[in-house]
Amino acid sequence: MAQNMPINQYMKREKEVIIIIDDQVSICDSCSQVFRKDGFQVDTATDGISGLEKVIKQRPDLVFVDLKMPGISGMEVLEEIANFDPTIVTVVITGYATIDFAVEAVKKGAFDFIPKPFIPDQLRVTTKRALERRRLLLETMSLRREKERMKENFISMVSHQLRTPLVAVQGYFEVILAGIAGDVSAEQKKMLERSKIRIDELIKLIKEWLSFARIDANSLVSELEPVDLIPLIKECLEDIQLVAEQKQIKVQLLGSDASAHVLGNKAALKQVFINLLENGIKYNKVEGSIRVSIKTENNFVNIEISDTGVGISKKDLPFIFEQFYQINKTEGSGLGLAIVKRIIDSHSGSIKVTSEPGEGTDFQIKLPQYHDDKK
Ligand code: ADP
Questions:
Q1: Which are the contacts of 196, defined by CB distance < 8 A and separation ≥ 6?
Q2: Residue 346, number of CB atoms within 10 A of its CB
């Protein structure tokens, strides 16, 4: 369908193509004359079926459709054209008696209507506007494709050109620091360790950019499976344990509802909890705490992650899920919460945050509960 069409082919077409479908031969002839004179390629059909055949074969830019025809109705023809290719612009030809139908047709997607009888200049004005619309639709589609292409290029460029050499450098640092390449003085070791930390941060940043660029709702939704959230969250807690201990932060899991199942993408959901828990540590005070609770209620699983950290002010709160939003410039990417929001949205869930500056922050996630009917 339209999505797979070689758009550029249309853009490059020498003459724009117009088809007139009207059982009145005189209308077809007079319109054709005007359009040919104005330099368009024209074709006509005197019934809906043969008109549609021509539309499918020629993929015109614009189609004029009479609403009242024997055989299949003009409305049906319009519908078929829209199903075949929604970028083909349609204009309804109508007598005054059927003007209500014409309004209906416009509501359903026809671009405009032209009441019979009309003079050539009226036809020209309508045609000009309709073709402008067509050009805009094509341009929008080709821009959308260009955006997709750029996104794909960006992802592969970032992963190959930036990440690969950094990982190699990181490997060399490890070898040198381990003393495998010869003795390293205490002074050198300190510098190398600092460099390694910066490289690690950079690799993490790139990983976040990549995962943000890769996450789109469709790709996640196509890989859904039943996920038991309790073991998944326990796994996340184990992953962050070491970092939490370094800051002497106590992490507690409250409530282990056995029915906390959702239909989801396991890796993506894990990323949600890891991002929130890591923030809970990063923006917490030494010897602070994080509490995670999981409850099911009214066919939803509610997960709450609250910390005793610095909190977020009322003025910043509405923006924290935006891409690259950071309250104070940290070593992070400002993408963590944007990723979280995107993943939760693609699971038909919701996320809310409440916070008290100086007291802590509380994230509440709601996901539709999954019931295994076979059990
Ligand atoms: P970053 O990479 O900066 O952590 P995020 O998207 O994860 O990006 O978070 C955006 C901003 O929201 C952070 O810069 C931080 O200021 C604030 N923030 C996020 N989580 C918390 C939290 N648990 N406590 C306090 N502030 C937070």
A1: 170, 173, 174, 177
A2: 19
pLDDT per residue as tens digits for the range 41-62: 999 999 999 999 999 999 999 9
| Residue 243: CB atoms within 10 Å | 13
Name, in order, each residue with C-beta under 8 angstroms of 291's C-beta and a sequence gap of 6 or more.
251, 252, 254, 304, 305, 306, 307
pLDDT above 60: residue 4: no
Atom of ligand 1 nearest to the CA of 311: 25
Residue 291 CA to ligand 1 centre (angstroms): 17
Confidence of residue 148 (pLDDT cuts 50, 70, 90): confident
Residue identifier of the C-alpha nearest atom 25 of ligand 1 = 311
Q: Return the best residue to mutate from 320, 321, 361 for the ligand 1 pocket (most ligand atoms within 8 A of CB).
A: 320
Residues pairing with 226 in the sheet: 263
Using alpha carbons, select from 254, 247, 273 the residue that is nearest to residue 262: 273
* Assigned token pair, 364: 């509440």
Ligand 1 pocket test target in 283, 343, 354 with most atoms within 8 Å of CB: 283
Per-residue model confidence as pLDDT tens digits over 107-116:
888 999 999 8
Number of the ligand 1 atom closest to the C-alpha atom of 330: 3
List pLDDT tens digits, range 282-313.
999 999 999 999 999 999 999 999 999 999 99
Instruction: Look at the block and give the residue holding tokens 């929130």.
Output: 276
Alpha helices in the chain (DSSP H): 7-12, 25-37, 48-58, 74-84, 99-107, 120-157, 164-177, 186-214, 217-221, 229-246, 266-282, 336-346
CB 268 within 8 A of CB 212: no
Q: What are phi and psi of 310, to 5 degrees?
A: -70, -20
C-alpha 241 – ligand 1 centre gap (Å): 19
Where does the pLDDT of residue 251 fall: very low under 50, low under 70, confident under 90, or very high at 90 and above? very high
